[in-house]
Write a structure and sequence with these properties.
The chain is mainly alpha-helical. The chain is 76% helix and 2% strand. It is built from ten helices and two strands. Helix 1 packs across helix 3, helix 7 crosses helix 8 and helix 8 crosses helix 9.
Length: 245
């Protein structure tokens, strides 16, 4: 997890080699050599990076697909508050770390570690750090979604390529809508069996003349029992992990 946070920080603003290993305790102290402007810019940049880290996690990783599928599962079970939001978000985050581990390791080995050892400069580090994430997003983005944003960029006369590579301004939104679509597709397959259980229970209660009894009150324990018996969490998490290229 520490390596993941360092990769995220380096993608937003490349820091000096000394601060890449550990944050200087005097970073928030006003410098004595008169370089107040440099100190202000450095401090503001660090605070900005820390505040944008959650957004970066959502934009360029597998987190959206996990959290959407888990949220739809909870809705399909009919449990609006169980598991709690903290549990679902934590599970989605750690599953994201698991899926993105090769990408994080590659970004560390090719970008951050050489920067720490003064083998490359900041500009080269940014390019090397972003390349593994670019490959991951391209592998998991529908060509149709990429073409959509390329066409939009052409209509607005904006560039969509940098050094024969798709620009991040095009790739990131295309990746996000692809992830949202796949999350809903998986969510539909997850919630479908629970819908069948609800329909069966509703039909039985109507046939027995129990008009005032909510069908969900009877179907809820059956849905939970069904999900537990088929080892639902194992199947769902395994399917989500295998859905990534």
């Amino acid at each position: 997890m520490i390596r993941f946070l360092l990769v995220i920080l380096a993608m937003m603003a490349v820091v000096t080699p000394a601060s890449a290993q550990a944050v200087d305790p005097g970073i928030f102290q006003t410098p004595l050599d008169g370089s107040v402007a440099s100190w202000i810019v450095r401090t503001f940049g660090l605070l900005t990076v820390l505040s944008l880290a959650p957004g970066i996690l959502i934009m360029i990783t597998s987190f959206p697909r996990f959290i959407i599928a888990f949220s739809i599962l909870r809705t399909g079970l009919g449990l609006p508050s169980a598991p709690a939001n903290m549990i679902l978000i934590s599970l989605a985050m750690f599953m994201t770390f698991y899926v993105m581990a090769p990408t994080f390791d590659r970004a560390w080995d090719e970008g951050i570690n050489p920067l720490i050892e003064n083998q490359i400069n900041e500009e080269q580090a940014i390019e090397r750090i972003s390349e593994p994430f670019r490959d991951f997003m391209l592998a998991n983005t529908r060509p149709k979604d990429v073409d959509l944003f390329i066409n939009l960029a052409r209509e607005q006369e904006q560039s969509f390529q940098t050094d024969d590579k798709i620009d991040m301004r095009v790739l990131v939104p295309a990746f996000m809508i692809s992830e949202i679509r796949r999350g809903f597709e998986i969510g539909f397959l997850v919630v479908l069996p629970f819908l069948v259980i609800d329909l069966v229970v509703a039909t039985i209660t109507m046939a027995m003349g129990m008009m005032m009894l909510p069908p969900t009150a009877i179907s809820l324990p059956f849905k939970i029992l069904f999900f537990v018996l088929i080892d639902g969490w194992n199947l769902l998490v395994g399917s989500l992990v295998r859905s990534f290229v």
